[in-house]
């Protein structure tokens, strides 16, 4: 199964893509129901938003745990148990008697939903390597990137025929479907002889080993910091487009959706051209594209440029995320086959942690300026580029010098 056009590879990408969309659906599908939940429990908007924070926390921490478990026990068992708990947690959300019960259930729901994100990527690394991993990962992202676009619309559709309770019942149905797919369609991809020992200390050492790997850390930070910039974009553009530029909700949805399409285009470009252009070349291209687009966004924000002048560079910025994410993942995972779950977990949790830090900063200067967005995405782009050049490129040069010195020593002897 090494050909991107192989029907089995496409079917596997569709299935694993569904698992990777579980996170976006868990986060976004109930967002349109916030006013209903406030009214139902007679609570405040901040407490309802706390249920979202709990879910994000579960998704972040859960990836670290699930990645380690999948390296020890294989891919199917943790995924099966997680999907079963996901169904229970979703139903617990639906029947919650209080807002605090909902918050706790959302924490659990996010924690087990993380298994779909991290294990789907670990399975991809189990089965593919090199350019084939890049091609397959681009297919995986093609499905996974649809989640943030489809989830809010799906939630609104459910709310049109039901209450907020129906949203969580729908999520439980999705979880049950993924449980069935894991049980009867997904084969184990990590044989026993390749699994990590069931030793908590060893799992911690695995993470330590990954973080000491300069190349892995450089790729991880380049990808994670860039995606953190997207969190700033997601949290800032609803306000910027509608409040500062006065566009209607419909126009905002069109602008936001079109940028989501460019994200997919960027990832597919890397996948389709992987056999002609190296992943490193694409990664550098994406980093420079992000930096140039960020400078343009900042300048337009400072000089209060027209809407189109802001939208165009943001389109290129979001496209650059698709390019850098698709290129950085296989480069980082290439040498991590023995602990792909742990490596995928680190690459998954970093964007959530950094995104949680930068998202609130978008509104730090008040309601009448987009300058903080420009500053944040320029900063994330610059730090991502530095992470690549200082950790990956500099490390490669140091390794090359060391190898040359060893060869010179052998010749001298």
Features:
single chain, 413 residues, mainly alpha, Growth Hormone, Chain: A, 15 helices, disordered N terminus
Assign the structural class, choosing from mainly alpha, mainly beta, alpha/beta, alpha+beta, or little secondary structure.
Answer: mainly alpha
Helix count from the secondary structure assignment: 15
Task: Write down the Rg.
Answer: 22 Å
And the CATH topology of the largest domain? Growth Hormone, Chain: A
Q: Name the CATH superfamily classification of the largest domain.
A: MFS general substrate transporter like domains
How many separate domains make up the residues?
2
Order of helices and strands: HHHHHHHHHHHHHHH
CATH architecture of the largest domain: Up-down Bundle
What does it look like?
This is Bcr/CflA family efflux transporter. Belongs to the major facilitator superfamily. Bcr/CmlA family. Residues 9-396 form the Major facilitator superfamily (MFS) profile domain. This protein is mainly α. It folds into 2 domains: 18-186, Growth Hormone, Chain: A (Up-down Bundle); 213-399, Up-down Bundle (Growth Hormone, Chain: A). It is built from 15 helices and no strands. The chain has helices at 7-28, 34-41, 45-73, 76-94, 99-127, 130-144, 147-161, 164-184, 200-212, 214-244, 249-273, 279-302, 307-333, 340-358, 371-412. α4 runs antiparallel to α8 (164-184). The chain starts with 6 loop residues before the first helix and ends with a helix. Residues 1-5 have low confidence and may be disordered.
């Amino acid at each position: 199964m090494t050909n991107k056009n192989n029907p089995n590879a496409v079917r596997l990408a569709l299935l694993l893509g569904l698992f990777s969309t579980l996170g976006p659906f868990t986060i976004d599908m109930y967002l349109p129901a916030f006013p209903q939940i406030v009214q139902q429990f007679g609570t405040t908007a901040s407490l309802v938003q706390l249920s979202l924070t709990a879910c994000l926390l579960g998704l972040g921490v859960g990836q670290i745990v699930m990645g380690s478990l999948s390296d020890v026990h294989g891919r199917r068992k943790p995924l099966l148990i997680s999907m079963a708990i996901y169904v229970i947690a979703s139903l617990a959300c639906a029947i919650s008697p209080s807002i605090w019960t909902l918050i706790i259930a959302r924490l659990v729901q996010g924690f087990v939903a993380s298994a779909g994100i991290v294990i789907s990527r670990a399975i991809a690394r189990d089965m593919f390597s090199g350019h084939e991993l890049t091609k397959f990962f681009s297919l995986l992202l093609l499905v996974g990137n649809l989640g943030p676009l489809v989830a809010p619309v799906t939630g609104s559709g459910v709310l049109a025929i039901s209450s907020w309770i129906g949203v969580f019942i729908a999520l439980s149905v999705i979880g049950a479907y993924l449980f069935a797919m894991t049980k009867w369609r997904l084969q184990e991809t990590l044989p026993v002889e390749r699994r990590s020992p069931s030793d908590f200390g060893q799992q911690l050492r695995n993470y330590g080993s990954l973080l000491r790997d300069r190349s892995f850390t450089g790729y991880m930070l380049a990808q994670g910091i860039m995606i953190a910039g997207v969190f700033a974009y997601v949290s800032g553009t609803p306000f910027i487009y509608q409040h500062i530029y006065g566009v209607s909700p419909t126009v905002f949805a069109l602008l936001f959706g079109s940028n989501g399409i460019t994200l997919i285009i960027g990832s597919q470009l890397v996948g389709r051209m992987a056999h002609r252009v190296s992943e490193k070349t694409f990664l550098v291209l994406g980093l420079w594209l992000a930096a140039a687009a960020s400078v343009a966004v900042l300048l337009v924000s400072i000089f209060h440029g027209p809407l189109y002048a802001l939208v165009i560079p943001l389109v290129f910025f979001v496209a650059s995320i698709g390019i850098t994410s698709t290129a950085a993942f296989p480069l980082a995972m290439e040498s991590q086959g023995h602990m792909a779950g742990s490596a995928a977990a680190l690459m998954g949790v970093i964007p959530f942690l950094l995104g949680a830090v930068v998202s609130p900063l978008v509104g730090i200067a008040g309601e009448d300026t987009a300058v903080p967005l420009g500053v944040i995405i320029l900063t994330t782009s610059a730090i991502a580029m530095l992470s690549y050049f200082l950790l990956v490129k500099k490390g490669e040069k140091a390794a090359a010098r060391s190898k040359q010195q060893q060869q010179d020593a052998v010749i001298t002897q």
